[in-house]
Amino acid sequence: MSTVTSRRAQTASDLPPFKPPLVKAVFRDVTPLHVSRTAAWAAASVTRTVLREIIDGARRAAAEEGRKKLVPADLVSAIDRNVEVEVGEEWYDHSPTFRGLTGDLYDAEGVLVPLRERRGSRKPSAVAGAHRFEAGVRKLLRGRGVTAVPVMVRDLDGIASFFLTGLARNAAMVVREGGVKRFGSVTLGTAEEVAPPPFPKDLVGALSTRSGDRRTIGRDDILAATTMPLFGDIRQRALTEARAVTRDASAG
Fold first, then answer.
1. Cβ-based burial of 169 (10 A; exposed 0-12, middle 13-18, buried ≥19)
2. How many CB atoms lie within 10 A of CB 2?
3. Higher pLDDT residue, 251 or 89?
4. Residues of the chain by 3-state class (helix, strand, coil), percent to 5
């Protein structure tokens, strides 16, 4: 095998399991803006980073009980232990796994809002498209050396779908507003722990404004959008991995 062929094979194996056509289909549900190929790969990479972190947390929870097959309780444990991966809030109202954990919702008159009303309409949405992520989720699970029961796979599908849908909305807002207007970060830990390095100020400045046309979502728009729902170590890792993926995709 030639060096070029070997490099291309390695590059392909490093790419996220969610391909650009799937990512663009999710974005079309949200915005009429064109999505560049590098933007699609970046969005897929960020979604992979988030899911991989959740799966690793669930895997550790399962390992404590001597299991390699993940169950919903492991998912709940992973999110309880790491607030950085609590990114599927909108999915929680749709999943039996999280029912009862999000609390009851009351309207302005103090009347309990039925679950079916909290779920919203049946128009095309992240819920309707969640099944599209199953193959990618199963590939991620295999890559982390575990399997999962069907309901756990469904929950990971839903979290991926809602996260990517939210990322699409944020990216469209970045394009519309010409950049990210507000930044924030949260650092968790005990007083004895060494604080992680702060989010790079030069990166904040680079992502806070954008150039280019207002009709296309580009890679940097995805990076800027990533800073909105994520914080801490996972945010820095997501940005780093997205940059690497877009370089590899372009090289391949």
1. middle
2. 7
3. 89
4. 60, 5, 40
Give the separation between CA 219 and CA 227, rounded to whole angstroms: 13
- Token pair listed for 231: 């914080």
pTM of the model: 0.76
Q: Taking residues 224-239, what's their average pLDDT?
A: 93
For residue 179, the one-letter residue type is G
Whole-angstrom Cα distance, residue 36 to residue 47? 17
Residues 109-146: b if buried by 16+ CB within 10 A, e if exposed: eeeeeeeeeeeeeeeebbbebbebbeebbbebbeeeeb
Structure tokens at 226: 């990533």
pLDDT attached to residue 160: 93
Structure-block tokens of residue 142? 């295999």
Rounded Cα distance, 84 and 82, in Å: 5
3-class secondary structure, 99 = coil
pLDDT, averaged across the chain: 77
Q: Which of 42-46, 195-199, 212-216, 238-242 has the lowest mean pLDDT?
A: 195-199
Tell me which residue has tokens 């029912």.
99
CA distance 144 to 141: 5
Distances (CA, A) of 61 to 48, 55, 146, 208: 20, 10, 12, 38
